[in-house]
Amino acid sequence: MSSGATQKDLVKFGANTQPVELASIYVQLADSQASYATGQVYGAMGGNGTP
CA–CA distance from 36 to each of 16, 22, 28, 33, 42 (Å)? Predict the structure, then answer.
């Protein structure tokens, strides 16, 4: 992670995220038109700030 998180934080990363909350991002990235997007940050923080 580029945010400077510690190893301790990394172990807990994603613990509060449900797969269904990320499904729309996965579908978007699987689309053939997603190849046009490069270097994007997709914020999926559930309203808890930015990634």
Answer: 30, 20, 12, 6, 14
Degrees to nearest 5, angle at CA 24 with 21 and 28: 150
Structure token digits, residue 25: 């991002």
18: left (phi over 0), alpha (psi -120 to 50) or beta: beta
Q: Is residue 43 within 8 Å of 26, Cβ to Cβ?
A: no
pLDDT value of position 51: 54
- pLDDT range class, residue 26, cuts 50, 70, 90: confident
